[in-house]
Design brief:
By secondary structure, this protein is an alpha+beta fold. It is about 35% helix and about 25% strand. The chain has 3 domains: about 55 residues; about 425 residues, no CATH class; about 40 residues, no CATH class. The longest helix has about 50 residues. Bound molecules: 2-acetamido-2-deoxy-beta-D-glucopyranose (6 copies).
Length: about 575
């Protein structure tokens, strides 16, 4: 074997190697990329996301905006529709922190509790925390609601207690939100209640005691995605259980994201969020593709699948174990344990008809398809657009909706005055970058309503219309920052970079192979024609040796001088030695 062939062979192999690498980069980059995402996105004590997840105070402040509805004509109830003025926004900077964080490697989950802290932000607030607001008296109504199935005597006693009161109460914004206000009924109630699960609130306020407390959101157990990134962020257990006692089976399943992480490779299918505030999952539906700082994202919104009262849903077959009526509930559920699978047809409604494409694809005989309207109804159903969270709020008749009854049954909106729903301000949405699942924009907006209904026993509520009374709505918006967007863009450019370098490598490799092939051919040509070149012939006698030296010179011309001379000497020596074999080689 002669040295030049060694060299040529080397370059040929290098060329082949580059082609192979280049082509595999072109075709295998999804695997590399997946590997990077798998290793980079799962949650661990050392991952990039951990610090922010653990404590959001280093992020740009999240703005929590609260609006209150001022009931301006409470004396005219029954004569005129209730009229509401929206007050606010009252703004708070929100910080979220985790506590008792424990990673369980054995099942790739993390357990934690969380707290939310709010700091008043006067700069963005319209109004003051001392504004006086007139609202339905939630405490009195809740008390009446709570005891509606109790003995008649109890109800009569309460009726007498309440008879001196009005339907509404005037409080400051601060009292209604954070500081709370005391009420004799609350004091009495907490001394009477013997249910250990009902906290003893001595005051009422929508966020009373919640600031900085970890007891409201409960204990959470979430997947970290360590072995399977597609499970990142999924809530597995809440308060140590995989079902809740707040809804009937199978609507009692703990499922969906805990809200902070979304696995990569998003499709346009629905995504599920478990809301601990509402004790139930919410379903986001794909709406459209939007752009934030030049990054494309899928926008999902809360729509009829969540808000409807007769939505059919196919459950994954492995969740069928939850379909038995396993729910342990408070007494008011027990009256009606329906057999769900045989009942999926029975609640077809007006609402269901205009969402037909989605729902009609399900066969009624499929045992995994459930009308979830039934299991969230608890017997009595709400008009669409309202979610009954009574059982999640210790029996207070609280109904959540989108702000201003956006996307709700028009009759609900028509029963009150002063509300003007619009898509821009009142949507509940999330935009995810589809490749990585990183949120680009989050807008959570909810309104709490109290169901005011007439009661024959409690005189305060005799002969009044049944109305869902809007009380308060709040929104938390967050958007990716410019800096985060640039980092994300770099990550997203990665596949393109891999593809391009794959192509470049393939081209260089092919050029190398072509060059080697050409040189090899040229050499063969020369040997056949035995060319005589005047200048080189003077240096070396043997025409065959001459070509070799010239070749070596050329190939090593990029290297520095030492190497060049070394090589030349090396080449000459070897040429001399091996020249005897020439006859055999060719
Ligand atoms: C709320 O409405 C009442 C009238 O019912 C009014 O006296 C009060 O000033 C209003 N509050 C604000 C902050 O406008
Ligand atoms: C501030 O609140 C008043 C009513 O209290 C309202 O008329 C006004 O539109 C609000 N301004 C903004 C910027 O929201
Ligand atoms: C919430 O708690 C923090 C820390 O204890 C306090 O600084 C802040 O003022 C509180 N916010 C409200 C709205 O009470
Ligand atoms: C994972 O393991 C921990 C510790 O054994 C346990 O507390 C938790 O409930 C488990 N999570 C799931 C989803 O099984
Ligand atoms: C709301 O749910 C509770 C129990 O969860 C039930 O008793 C009540 O009847 C429901 N109300 C309506 C209006 O659906
Ligand atoms: C479901 O919602 C529709 C539309 O809001 C309403 O007309 C219907 O009465 C509701 N169904 C039940 C069972 O309440």
């Amino acid at each position: 074997m002669r040295p030049w062939t060694n060299k040529l062979l080397g370059f040929g192999i290098l060329g082949l190697f580059l082609v192979a690498l280049g082509i595999s980069l072109c075709f295998l980059w999804p695997i590399f990329f997946h590997y990077i995402i798998q290793k980079g996105l799962f949650l661990s004590p050392t991952s990039n996301t951990f610090e922010i997840w653990n404590d959001t105070s280093k992020l740009p402040p999240l703005l929590f905006k609260v609006y209150l509805f001022n009931w301006t004509n409470p004396e005219q109830l029954g004569i005129k529709k209730p009229h509401f003025d929206q007050l606010g926004p009252y703004c708070f900077r929100e910080v979220r922190q985790k506590d008792n964080v424990i990673f369980h490697h054995e099942n790739q989950t993390v357990s934690y509790v969380q707290r939310r802290l709010w700091y008043f932000d006067a700069e963005h607030t319209n109004g003051s925390l001392n504004d006086i607001v007139s609202q339905l008296d939630v405490v009195a109504l809740s008390a009446a609601h709570k005891i509606r199935y109790w003995e008649y005597e109890w109800q009569k006693t309460l009726s007498i207690l309440l008879s001196v009161r009005k339907l509404y109460t005037r409080r400051t914004v601060n009292e209604l939100l954070f500081s709370g206000y005391s009420d004799d009924i609350l004091t009495m109630g907490s001394s009477m209640a013997n249910d250990p699960e009902i906290p003893m609130f001595d005051r009422f306020g929508w966020f009373y005691m919640r600031n900085g407390s970890t007891m409201f959101d409960g204990h959470l157990n979430m997947e970290t995605g360590e072995n399977d990134i597609s499970r990142l962020g999924i809530l597995r257990k809440w308060n140590y259980k995989d079902t809740t006692k707040h809804n009937k089976s199978p609507c009692n399943i703990i499922e969906g994201s805990a809200g902070e992480f979304w696995p990569p490779k998003r499709t346009k299918d629905d995504i599920t969020l478990f809301s601990v505030d509402m004790c139930r999952p919410l379903f986001y539906e794909y709406e459209k593709t939007t752009s934030h700082f030049g990054i494309e994202g899928y926008r999902y919104t809360i729509d009829k699948k969540t808000l409807g009262n007769s939505t059919k849903r196919r459950y994954p077959h492995d969740q069928a174990k939850f379909f038995e009526p396993t729910t342990t509930t408070e007494n008011f559920f027990e009256s009606e344990q329906i057999t769900i699978s045989s009942n999926t047809e029975s609640m077809e409604s007006i609402f269901n008809n205009h969402s037909s494409e989605d729902t009609d694809e399900y066969s009624d005989n499929d045992p995994d398809v459930i009308n979830i309207g039934n299991c969230y109804c608890n017997g009595e159903c709400t008009p669409s657009g309202l979610l009954n969270i009574t059982s999640c709020r210790y029996g207070a008749p609280v109904f959540m909706s989108l702000p201003h009854f956006y996307k709700a049954d028009p009759a609900v909106l028509d029963a009150v005055e002063g509300l003007r729903p619009n898509a821009n301000d009142h949507s509940f949405s999330i935009t995810l970058e589809p490749t990585t699942g990183i949120p680009l924009e989050v807008s959570a907006a909810l309104q709490a309503n109290i169901y005011l209904y007439s009661s024959e026993v409690v005189s305060l509520y005799n002969n009044i219309p049944n109305i869902y009374m809007p009380m308060i709505w709040f929104t938390l918006k967050a958007e990716i920052t410019d800096e985060m967007a640039s980092n994300l863009r770099i990550l997203l450019a990665f596949p393109t970079v891999m593809l391009c370098s794959g192509i470049v490598m393939t081209i260089i490799g092919l050029c190398l192979i072509a060059a080697v092939a050409l040189l090899f051919l040229a050499k063969k040509q020369r040997m056949v024609t035995a060319p005589t070149d005047g200048t080189i012939e003077k240096m070396i006698d043997n025409p065959e040796k001459k070509t070799e030296v010239v070749y070596m010179d050329k190939m090593s011309s990029n290297e520095d001088d030492n190497v060049k001379t070394d090589r030349r000497l090396y080449a000459r020596n070897l040429v001399n030695v091996s020249s005897e074999n020439d006859g055999m080689d060719t």
